[in-house]
Amino acid sequence: MGGWRRAVWVMGMTLLCGAGFAGRAEAQLGALISPGPLSKAHSALEGLKNCERCHERGNRVSASRCLTCHAPIAERMAKKVGVHRAVTNDCVTCHVEHAGVDGELRPFDPGKFDHARQTGFALDGKHAAGAANCALCHKTRSFVTASAACASCHTDVHKGALGKTCERCHSTKASFKAVSTTFDHRTTAFPLAGAHRSVACARCHVTSTFKGVKFASCTNCHKTPHPPAVSNACTTCHTNDTWKTRRFDHDRTAFPLVARHALVECAACHREPAAKVKPASSTCATCHADPHRGTFRQDCKVCHNEKGFSGAPFDHAAGTGFALTEGHAGRECRSCHKTITAAGVPLAKKMLDYRGLGTSTCATCHVDPHRGQLGATCATCHTTRDFRVSTFAHPRFPELFGGQHAALRCEACHKPPAPSPSMAASARAGAPPARTGTPPARGAGPPDRSPAPQVLLSAAKFAGTPTACASCHADVHLGQVRGTCESCHSVGGAKFAVVGFSHDRARFRLTGAHASVACANCHRRETGAFPAGSGTATRLTGVRTECRSCHADVHLGQVAASCETCHATDTFRVSRYTHRGGPRDFFVGRHVRAACSACHKPATGQFPAGKGTAVRFAIPATCVSCHTDVHNGTLGQDCARCHRPEPLQSAHAALRRLPGSTVRPSHPRIGS
Amino acid sequence: MDHARILDMPSPSERRMPSGSSLSPAVQRPAPAAAPLRGIRFLTNGVGLATLVSLAITAWILFGLGGWAYYTTPLGVRGYAQLHPLLRPSGPVGQTLGVIGAALMLVPFLYMMRKRLVKSPWAGSLRIWLEVHLFCGIVGPVLVTFHSSFKFNGLVSAAYWAMVVVVASGFIGRYLYVRIPRTLRGTELSHAELDERANELLGELVEKTGKGPWLEKALELEWAVLPKGGRRSLVSLLFGEIALRWRVRAFARQIRQSGLAAGEQRALIQVMTERALILRRLAYLQKTKAVFALWHVFHLPLVYLLLGIVILHVGLALYLGYVPFRW
Q: Do B294 and A4 make contact, defined as CB atoms within 8 angstroms?
């Protein structure tokens, strides 16, 4: 086991050497338990005794120990300024130690630093170039001392005259000298507009004076060629764009150029030199001649406007008391005012006198075609729109002019006379075209579909037209009806409908099914003698009322009694009938409930009224006439000896099939 | 070992009997096994499993967490790397790695206690304990390495390098260990037992070769790999087996090219390999045991140095407040 001993010796020596190195100094002992050398800045803190200057027992590296030495940082943290203003976590989160002598304590990548967000001072424009070189602005070790004020870095060439807010004029995007191109003059009290924009700064800001330049009046900078009267109102004629006044806005003068005035050349009015800019403009006569030769004393504007002398918007109603409405409107003045000269006459020879035209009566201009029979107040029937009488209400008998009469044309009743040459001539002479033509009167006699004769309604007779029905309508009943027309007809009923008639007033009242029968089924058109003479008319009186005059006898004379004995007007069906004849003991039991047709069957043969097919009513009263004799006559004819109509059930029970019989007992109702 | 003596073997029928005994599989262990089982067997031994786990952890830290970028950052500015809060030695991952690594490295002490103080068999077989010891002794240092973040300073770095030496010596120990044939439970086999097994294998060899030319070749090989004379150098002890394996492999290649059936080939190679190994290990047994005893002296004292510094390191960290879960 010599190997054993040798190994122990080697190990021991190794440990001793290690201990020998460790024991050299306290600093080296510290280095033994240190996780790595401290950075240069903290190199004084190496050594075993210094551990707890940073490390706190049980509390790692507390910020308080760091800040004991780094008091300025603590101060700034308390003031919430600088990079550490918002730091809440431990120092070691950002400052890692024991990373070697050259270990980085303040890792800072200018490229990743958001200067705008962190400091509130964005490095944009020209400042961006300095983003990578912090020392350009940050001259001291602490970056907090750097100020955002421009003057902290830049010299103020204005020597404080323009205040401290440089950014009002200068932007970081351009150099200081480039301010003339970047400065926004709109932010000043005198925004530059039009031609002012292209003026060099120094033309106004003489000797680099930027504040206090006078600009209230144009004459602060510009000289005026105009006399003092207009010299201060430059903007009335001139704009910022150019001195030329060719596009002058005349609206801004006391005399706006409207309509045809706007088309006139400037020199037509402004005959004086340009400096004299205000020609007299109070009256039209300054420029225009008066063709009325002074007949109108009032202002021209009452009748004329700038759109032209002819077609002036003269208010005829206000000016003369005679409104030109409807038919009067739109006519040439000369059609009434005959004295004025025609168009095309030279202005100097023109005579425009509109006076002396009476307006009280229509007859001043119009001829009366009624020749005075309707008086002088035309307006009762006519309007200014048209001579046609469109809405005339008859003042008397209003009930007569309603209903079907309402739609009639006037000439249906007021028939004009045959045309006479004198009337036609007078109509052509000047009166407006009167209503002509007579459409056929509706309902009054046969319609006349030939072209209406050309007659003048204006010559018709209007007064004293009769109002009786017969004066227009013919009696289609040929005298059968003796009462007044109104008892049956009304002007309100269409097509002479019988609105006032009730069949109850007749001798034959319409009941049951008769009520729905068409009138013409009974009242037929006949040609023959009527009270008013022979002719064709609907027979209204003297129609026969017996049933057989309309209905055929389906019973072929079997029934002598009147029809009403069995039938009513509601229906031909006999709903209930009591046998009056026949054997009394027959209608008992099942026979009572049997349907009529069970016994009374349709038969073809001889009937009282002749041969034919009808339900036979007279039938023999024997049982075998309806029932089959299941006994084949072996028990005789007197069925009643064994059978009664009721009760059949017990009878059925008693029935037995006879021995040897091949006949099956059958039901008496059905038969075998 | 005498060549003539080996040929003096019992008949094959007699030889087959002890092959079922408990010592047989243990001795068979180093023999090249049938191919399909090899991968799984790799996982069942402590070194293989530890290698696998270590690789997994390394991959996770370097590539899963992104540790590669962190560890390659220069020390001066590493404190500002993105992963520094996580991977620094006192960070959530870094410190946990250190704690777990230290805990794992305490396990070998338990093995030591089992071996020296607790002799009763209820405490688990020594072989299992050794495998656990190997596993923890490999994975622990790997974790501690990542805990250190490859920053070796002061006394604790001395502990780290001590640990590295201990682990390295551990590999040597393991290398020597397997050269001392044992039972499954880890008990060393005696010279006589090994002799018996060697004879048994010779019998099988004779049976398999049918005393033909292959037997002749096998015996030639054995002779070639055995030490000549009384020389048992340390170099030959440590690296001689490599030459043996080369020769055995060359011999196996010859057998495979022969006309023998596949089953016979495999059986012949297996028997021949095992016998060659046993003979060689038997020849070096005394020397191996002597070196292994000396190895203990080398492996152990550094462990105490390591333990002492780690206790100081942990104590200092706790004293200054670098406590787990206060990251």
A: yes
Res B168 pLDDT > 90: yes
Q: State the average pLDDT over residues A312-325.
A: 77
Contacts for A123 with CB less than 8 Å, ≥ 6 apart: A115, A116, A130, A131
Per-residue buried b or exposed e for B236-273, using 16+ beta carbons within 10 Å of the residue's own CB: ebeebbeebeebbeebbeebeeeebeeeebbbbbbbbb
Residue of B76, B156, B294 with shortest CB distance to A3:
B294
pTM of the model: 0.47
Long-range own/partner contacts, residues A72-79 (CB < 8 A, 24 or more apart) = A72/A142, A76/A144
Provide the pLDDT for residue A197: 84
- Binary contact (B294, A7; C-beta < 8 A): yes
The answer to whether B320 contacts A102, with C-beta atoms less than 8 Å apart, is no
- Given an 8 Å threshold on Cβ–Cβ distance, is B76 in contact with A37? no
Pairwise CA distance, residues B286 & B283, whole Å = 8
- State how far the alpha carbon of B287 is from the alpha carbons of A6, A486, B3, B274, in Å: 18, 161, 21, 20
Confidence at A664, pLDDT banded by 50, 70, 90: very low
Residue A354, SS3 per DSSP: coil
Within an 8 Å CB–CB cutoff, is residue B247 touching chain A?
A: no
List b or e across A553-579, with b for residues whose CB sees 16 or more CB atoms inside 10 angstroms: eebbeeeeeeeeeebeeeeeeeeeeee
Q: Look at residues A367, A387, A401 and name the one whose alpha carbon lies nearest to residue A436.
A: A387
Tokens 């993105």, residue located = B82
Pick from B80, B294, B319 the residue to mutate for testing the A interface (most A CBs within 10 Å). Answer: B80
Residue A653 in tokens: 């029970």
**How many separate helices (H) and strands (E) can be counted in chain B?**
16, 0
Q: What stretches of A23-95 show up as alpha helix (H) in DSSP? A: 26-33, 51-54, 63-69, 71-79
How many contacts, defined by CB atoms under 8 Å, are there between A and B? 87
Q: Model confidence at B167, in pLDDT bands (50, 70, 90)?
A: very high
Q: Comparing A153 with B21, which gets the higher pLDDT?
A: A153
**Residue B49, Cβ neighbours under 10 Å: how many?**
17
Rounded to 10 degrees, what is the CA torsion of A465, A469, A473, A479?
A: -140
Distance CA B215, CA B204 (A): 10
CA distance B114 to chain A (A): 23
What chain A residue is nearest to B78 in terms of C-alpha separation? Answer: A99
Q: Which residues contact B186 (CB under 8 A, 6 or more apart)?
A: B125, B126, B127, B130
If phi over 0 gives left and psi between -120 and 50 gives alpha, with beta otherwise, what is residue A568? beta
> Is A381 near chain B, with CB under 8 Å?
no
Most A-contacting residue of B71, B75, B172 (CB-CB within 10 A), to test interface:
B75
Q: Which residues of B touch A60 (CB under 8 A)?
A: 90, 320-322, 326
Cα–Cα distance for residue pair A466/A644, rounded to 1 Å: 86
Q: Do A58 and B293 touch (CB under 8 A)?
A: no
Is the pLDDT at A2 greater than 60? The verdict is no
- Report how far apart, in Å, the C-alpha atoms of A22 and of each of A33, A38, A320, A345, B7 are: 10, 18, 135, 139, 65
| A35 to B153: CB separation less than 8 angstroms, yes or no | yes
What residues of chain A lie within 8 A of the CB of B326, using their CB? 60
**How confident is residue A423, by pLDDT bands cut at 50, 70 and 90?**
very low
Pair A148, A120: CB distance under 8 Å:
yes
Spell out the SS3 assignment of A235-289.
Answer: HHHCCCCCCCCCCCCHHHCCCCCCHHHHHCCHHHHCCCCCCCCCCCCCCHHHCCC
For A48, A108, A258, A309, the CA distances from A137, given in Å and listed in that order, are 42, 17, 68, 82
Separation between Cα atoms, residue B61 and residue B53, nearest integer Å? 12
